[in-house]
Task: structure prediction
Amino acid sequence: MIDKRLFDLPGMKKYVVILGILVFIQAIAIIAQARALSIAIVNLWNLQSINTIIGPIIVFTVAFLARHLLTVAENHVLFPFVEKTSGDMREDLMAKIFRLGPAEIDKRGTGNIVTMALEGIDQVQTYLMLVVIKILDMSITPWLILLYVLFLRWEQAIFLFAIFPVIILFMIILGLAAQSKADRQYEGYQWLSNHFVDTLRGLPTLKQLGLSKRYADNVYEVSESYRKETMSTLRIALTSTFALDFFTTLSIAVVAVFLGFDLMDGKVMLLPALTILVLAPEYFLPIRNFANDYHATLNGKNAMSAVMDVLHEPEMSQREVLPDLKWNDDSTLKLNQVSLTYPGSKEPTLKDISIDVKGMHKIGIIGASGSGKSTLINLIGGFLSPDGQNQISINGQPLPHLNQANWQKNFLYIPQNPYLFHATLAANISFYVAGASEAAITSAADKAGLSDWIKTLPNGLNTMIGEGARTVSGGQAQRIALARAFLDPNRKVLLFDEPTAHLDIETEAGLKQDILPVFNNHLVFFATHRLHWIGEMDYVLVMDHGRLVEQGIPDQLAQRNGDYVKLRSEMEAADL
Amino acid sequence: MKNLKKTFENDTWVMPYLRKYKGLLVLVLFLGFMTFFSGGALMFNSGYLISEAARQPASIIYIYVPVVLARAFGIARPVFRYVERLTSHNWVLRIVSDFRKKLYQTVEQKASAIQRSHQTGDILSILADDIDHIENLYLRTVFPMVIGWLLYIFMVIGVGSLNWGVGLLMLLLLGIITIVMPLASVATNGVREFKQHQIQHTFYTNLTDEVLGLGDWLISGRYNDFINLQKKPIKSIAALRKRDHYFQWWRSFLVQIVILLTTLVLLVWSANQFTSSKSLANWVAAFALAIFPAVSPFVNMSQGASEWPVYKRSIERVNALDDGGVQPVEQTSLAEPFNQLSINNLTFKYADGNRNVVKNISMTIHPGEKVALLGPSGTGKSTFLKLVVGDLTPSDGQVLINQQNILSLQDVRSSLFGILDQQPYLFDTTVMNNVRLGNVNASDQQVKDAIAAVGLKDLIESLPDKYDTQVQEAGKRFSGGERQRLSLARILLQDAPIIILDEPTVSLDPITEKKLLDKVFELLHDKTIIWVTHHLAGIAHVDQVRFMENGQFDMQGTPQELYKTQPRFRQLYDLDRGRV
Ligand SMILES: Nc1ncnc2c1ncn2[C@@H]1O[C@H](COP(=O)(O)OP(=O)(O)O)[C@@H](O)[C@H]1O
Ligand SMILES: Nc1ncnc2c1ncn2[C@@H]1O[C@H](COP(=O)(O)OP(=O)(O)O)[C@@H](O)[C@H]1O
Ligand SMILES: [Mg+2]
Ligand SMILES: [Mg+2]
Result:
């Protein structure tokens, strides 16, 4: 029930002590408040004049105010700590995202990560605020009250003390039963909300099949059957709250009744009896508060686990092994029997890949889909790390992986859908080159064939593009990525991953004319399954099921009757 | 208030359901009221009980009734609470079922059978979240508020009937925490909520932008820029949260002060009212003890109220969905089998667009003809297809099947058109169920035959669960080519005379593409086909190619003719075959 990680948070111990003292004083205020109220009531009961209750009422007022001011004070004390902890968590998370890199983040889903950084951390904050004080309250207040009641009348104290473990026991038993049911229900909930979104997403398909109208009833029925199931589990889940409620409320009634009998027998005076009665609800209040917020804090607890998981995720270390590098005609990149297995896969996706590159080349990577082209490009880009150590080297320097800061300064990566930031066109083009001059940007845009389009834009290079702003077609997005390459003469390596696969043939033909010049004096890796690009390459890697089955100069490969020839013939269409 | 009125002016999402489930609603409110009533009554009764007992009456008879009542209230309170929670959840879940259906139907009306290529699920998730919000509106705001007000009225009337002056004081004091403070919270939070929404939105969009472009950030090595970009919104969010928290703490404190004043008033009043005789004096303790449990429901009313702006946004968003419904056209069915599709002077402009996306297009297609449509993206090919199937209403011109307008044939549309697009959807259920959607009356054998026809028999039968294999979310279990084939199997079952293909191979590699196209044209050789494609693979399958540019056709002819006579076509074709 109580999260141990809480007390391991850095700096928490000090706050626990301070808060503990405040809660302790607060418990004394609660007792004083009850005592003063009881005295006032007893005086009135004895038909004494109203003057006799002025004193007690003042004490009551002071104690009451002290009690609630202390609540505010506790929050004030704790808040800076919680704020710092959650703020640090948010920043750590950002830094971690950067270090984990796109492959890991993709796996978790962009939406998940973003929600975690925003709502997740908010929930952690609420959780910390609630739960620390509640736990302290629960572990101090009831016991002080009990001590005081013991001092007033031990029989009632023993009853109140005895009932406590019973409550806890019932809560645990029922709570556990409810929890396992609730877990299952949560899965049901997930399933339902997925089903609903699934149906909404599939609406166009339902419409195509003429089923969309009829499906409305299906949506309703699924939701209703879920309701019935939920209600049956909810009945159990609520039973645990019911048990707590039942025992505490009934205990108060029992205390009242027993006190009544004792009073009749003259075994106790009204004042102590009344004080006990006033204190009885206060005795149960902390545990009830804790239980009431328990479900509310569950979200925060889960959010905290999720954030911790990400923060503890292993990341590629040794990013600085490679010394300063400027790729040139003499530079070499060697892959020696490299294999790569995705986490969670049994089989390696890349098997025994060996490549030896020196200087500037145009290297095509071809193969059926699923053969490992993208994986290889991601390996070269350092987004994925190979299974073995030191099978890769640059300029003879063995490297654990290519996620090397100095290697990444040397290349540009152009995927099928280059990402465009929500920023101006100029900022997007100069993303890699801090402080590029406007003239340089314009010239790069021109070389990438963007100038005609830019002329039609209201603000030219300063037009906002990206999500939520002007939409940019696939062909133009490729040209913007290309302009980045033209703008940055220092990045001599270009990694293309099927940049034109989704473009229509006319757009592709136009784009090709602008891409070809950038190939000169660069080391190019170009994964593609469009045949016409192969003609532009001076070296080809043929991939099949994760293996590099053939490599060489295209013309020579065409002479051999190997995988290259086979692949080409499968792709090619017949004459018209 | 004006705001409130505006929110509910054209409301079809909240009020109708309050009315529809009136009975249960009243029950929930009654049970909620009784819960707090029993809580107060228990302490009231207990206070009286021990005061009376302390007089040491001669016989136990004197305290018999309070003893029984103490036990009764002691049991009643938790029972009422338990039943109340069950009932209110049941009530809300019932409403949710209605909501889902309603949301589905609203979205359904506007959905098009031909999707835009990169449709995000975002808007859908937002809508699904809105439903959750409205659910919470009831549980966290409406129920507690109404129950609080009921208790408020009850207490004021109860005390007022004994002493109208004190009743009036109660009316004022408790009015502060049940009416004034919730309203003030809504007002403060309304302004804050607006700002908060903006800051969060900035953070959210920036962060999404950063995460989606993470690869570029990483390669660029701009770690510090990456971190700094979020520093400011993180700070603003922190400041915002801080103010939020401070506001809540002090507001709760203020509520407590009002409770203190109420207690003092009642104490002083009972000191005057009940001290004339011993038996009356027994009531002092009763009133004094009852106050705290009785006012406990008021403590959280302001918090419930301050969540209103969030709910309001959701209510307005779902209500906005209802606007702009399409005018219904009277539906008929097709009198005789399909014999001609004529497109006459078709012109179309999107309501929010500034140009005609389709411009005065005319063509006639006869049964069995196969037409390919090419053109750069954004020229209006998909729009044209939407007009053909009747998802959009043309600004001018018409689409006729056997001289009947397509807009009047929407109810029988699935018997006219089979559609395969870029991302045919597989639902999260079994292969069998997914394929059967093509024709819900098909037998198992027919479904299996269709799957065999598209060449997936061996694959499916090699899976452990065979035809009962779950396709998983959005068909993840299968590759792009396999998903297309499963959809093709659906179309085979559907058996409509006209087949619409909207770039079905755009995400496939050339080998898979070639196999799929061969399969499509082999299986559908006797159908009429309109095929939008992005390049020229498989073009030999069609009788007619049309190029579309800016909403109009320019080049057209058989592929063989075009190859001979049009240099542009020849160049593109050769490029596609890698012969350049
Ligand atoms: N994140 C991943 N986790 C596990 N397996 C993956 C992942 N990404 C790709 N694969 C698998 O690796 C293989 C190669 O994929 P990929 O490199 O994308 O091929 P290509 O780019 O040639 O189409 C495929 O079988 C694919 O299913
Ligand atoms: N729902 C819509 N509302 C407004 N404009 C749209 C909508 N759908 C498409 N468009 C615009 O209409 C034009 C044609 O789009 P579309 O028919 O999808 O082209 P294609 O299928 O040829 O790529 C594009 O400029 C597009 O931005
Ligand atoms: Mg790939
Ligand atoms: Mg389209």
